[in-house]
Structure formats: structure tokens, C-alpha cells
Design a protein that fits this description.
By secondary structure, this protein is an all-alpha fold. 55% of the residues lie in helices and 0% in strands. It is built from eleven helices and no strands. The chain has helices spanning 94-117, 121-145, 154-169, 173-186, 190-206, 210-223, 229-245, 249-262, 266-279, 282-301, 339-361. The longest helix is centred in the middle third of the chain and has 25 residues, at 121-145. It is extended. It starts with 93 loop residues before the first helix and ends with a helix.
Length: 362
């Protein structure tokens, strides 16, 4: 009976060979070809076992090493593959060279805009200038290879407009205006000209040149398409700001009234109240304050408030039917609010400030 705990194990019935090395002068075994023995025996003068080691491989590969020094064996250059599975290689054809330059320009413009959004004016301006330099290189490459230029000039407009905006943010107003003037001569698209004129008006307003700013805004209004109504009301509100800065309150009231008739907003209603206060018209101030409250009430109810069905109670009469914070999600412990909730809260805080300040003035 076998028991692994019952004493010493029995000896095998056969004895293993003491050595694989044959005696000197002995003939090889029958049926085997002559071969050299002793390669696997750890003895003095014996050759190490390397016959099973594949060429080019190592147990500890070193990336970037020379051949035969433990370098990574990669005959197909698979390490150069990107996440998308394509091989990285330098552009060869003229079309590939220009396409690569376009990708670099778009990346620089995006990085410039991101830096400007975080308040890094220096980096934003540096990236914008680098994008312009690569844009000039792209144009030279297209001329050299006799390739067709972009008929829409979309990339040209984006690069120059971003550069002008970053120059204005950095306080270099004259260079920004020169860039805008160059763009107006280069671009014939009315939509693009509207944005350029508005930007030039904003720069003039920052410089305190209010008549020139109003002129630029009016030129933008004349070339704006009929489909861009929201942009039209924003430009009209800017025109009212220029009249307020020049103490021309009657003209400013006409502009704000025009905005409120078509596109009511809290900022225009509050500015209208300030203009009436500057003229000393208290009755008009109260009327403007009432309109301000009506705009806020419409915001709380929403643009598409549900109408009661026959036999149903009006939802506005129910207790708590009007959401004081429409669209805002309640805070959860340990979870930061989403961007939409943050934006809605900022707008609500601004609206409350308009109402509180207006109530103190009347």
C-alpha cells in the first residue's frame, strides 16, 4: 500500500547514467549521426548553450539600442504605429505636405483660443502669430507646387481673425485694427465682414472712440443678412451703448426700445431704465421696471409654457408650479454641478442683480 508518509522512498530499479560524455575513442551509438557532445555540460572550456536562442531577441530588450546589444527586435517597425493603426511617416507628395500644414495651423488656432479662454494672453498671442507664420508657409508651398488656393479663404479668415482678437486682448489695438482692415480687403463674404466690423467697433469702443465705434456698428448692420436676427439685435444694443457713453440718452432710448420690441432681454431693459433716470422721467422708469420684471417672469415660466386643457386647472395656479430655478439640477453630495447648471446659476444671479439694482433706483 502506497503511503507518502511511510518511511523512505524506494530506490529506482535502474540507475541513471553518470555522464553523457562518451569515453575517448569509443564509437558513436548505432543509428545516430556523429555529433559533438558536451555543449550542455557546465565544464571548463565548454561552449555555452546558445543554439536555442533566436537571433535578435533578448530576455531584457532595450528600446533604441544598437543591433546585437539587446535592442528591441522590430523588423516591421510596429512600434511606430499610432493608436489608429497607421504608420507615422513624413509627408511625401505636395498634397500631403499642404494637408499637414493645415492640420498644424488648426491645432495652433485651437491652442490659442484655449489659452485665451484661461486668461493666458501671452501664450494665446504667441500661438496666433505662429499660426500666421505657418499660414504664409502654406501659401508659398501651394504657389511652388502650383496647387489651387482655397476659394473660400476660410482658413485665411480664421487665422487672421484670431490674431486680431488676441492682439486686441493684449492691448495692441492699432495692430489689431490693421489686421482687420487687411481682412476686409481680402474677404468679400458679407457674413465675415459683419464679424470684422463688429470687432473693429469693439476695439474703437475700448479706445474711447465712440463715434467711430457707432460707425462700425452701423456698417455691420447694413451688411448683416436677414436670417441673422439675433446678431442684429446684439449690434443694435451695442449702438445704444455708444450713445450712452456720449450722453445721448434720447438716441440710446430709441435703440433699446427697438431691441425690446423684437428681442426682450434684461440688459436692454435695465439700460433703458438708466437712460430714463438720466433724463429724470420717473414714470418711464417705473414702466421700464415693470418690463424688466415681465422679462424675468417669462424666463422663469419658460418660452413654451403648457396651456391648460378644458376642465383642468391652470398650472400657474398650483402651489410651486413655477420653478424658481428652471433647468438647474440640485446639488449632490460629493459631485460637482455640470456646466449647464453653472451657466444657468450665473444667469440667475445676474438677473437678480439687475432687479435689485433697478428697485433701488426707482
Amino acid at each position: 500500500m502506497y503511503n507518502e508518509f511511510s518511511g523512505q522512498p524506494t530506490q529506482p530499479s535502474f540507475a541513471p547514467p553518470t555522464s553523457f560524455v562518451p569515453q575517448t575513442g569509443a564509437p558513436p551509438p548505432t543509428g545516430f549521426a556523429p555529433q559533438r557532445f558536451g555543449t550542455a555540460v557546465a565544464q571548463d572550456g565548454g561552449r555555452p548553450m546558445t543554439a536555442i536562442k533566436a537571433a535578435g531577441f533578448s530576455s531584457r530588450p532595450v528600446v533604441g539600442g544598437a543591433a546585437g546589444s539587446g535592442a528591441l527586435f522590430d523588423p516591421l517597425n510596429q512600434a511606430a504605429r499610432t493608436a489608429s493603426g497607421t504608420l507615422q511617416r513624413d509627408p511625401q507628395t505636395p498634397e500631403e505636405i499642404c494637408a499637414d500644414l493645415e492640420r498644424q495651423i488648426n491645432t495652433l488656432v485651437e491652442e490659442s483660443a484655449m489659452a485665451a479662454s484661461t486668461g493666458d494672453k501671452k501664450t494665446a498671442l504667441a500661438q496666433a502669430k505662429e499660426a500666421l507664420r505657418k499660414m504664409m508657409t502654406l501659401q508659398k508651398q501651394r504657389d511652388q507646387f502650383h496647387l489651387q488656393q482655397d476659394p473660400t479663404n476660410a482658413l485665411h479668415f480664421v487665422v487672421h481673425f484670431n490674431l486680431a482678437c488676441q492682439l486686441a486682448r493684449a492691448g495692441q489695438f492699432e495692430e489689431a485694427l490693421r489686421t482687420h482692415n487687411f481682412m476686409v480687403k481680402k474677404n468679400k463674404d458679407y457674413t465675415q465682414c459683419v464679424r470684422i466690423r463688429v470687432s473693429m467697433g469693439n476695439i474703437a469702443f475700448e479706445q474711447g472712440k465712440y463715434p467711430q465705434a457707432a460707425k462700425m456698428y452701423h456698417m455691420a448692420m447694413d451688411s448683416i443678412p436677414q436670417s441673422s436676427k439675433e446678431m442684429k439685435y446684439k449690434i443694435q444694443r451695442n449702438i445704444g451703448h455708444t450713445y450712452v457713453a456720449q450722453h445721448q440718452y434720447t438716441e440710446a432710448i430709441a435703440e433699446y426700445e427697438g431691441v425690446l420690441e423684437e428681442h426682450p432681454d434684461l440688459a436692454s431693459a435695465f439700460n433703458l431704465l438708466l437712460c430714463y433716470r438720466a433724463l429724470g422721467d420717473k414714470a418711464a422708469m417705473k414702466d421700464a421696471f415693470t418690463r424688466l420684471l415681465a422679462i424675468e417672469q417669462q424666463r422663469l415660466q419658460g418660452p413654451a409654457a403648457a396651456q391648460p386643457q378644458p376642465g383642468q386647472q391652470d398650472p400657474s395656479e398650483l402651489a410651486g408650479a413655477v420653478d424658481p430655478h428652471p433647468g438647474e439640477k440640485p446639488d449632490k453630495p460629493g459631485i460637482a454641478p455640470d456646466e449647464l447648471t453653472v451657466e444657468l446659476r450665473a444667469r440667475r444671479t445676474k438677473a437678480e442683480k439687475y432687479i435689485m439694482d433697478a428697485s433701488k433706483l426707482i
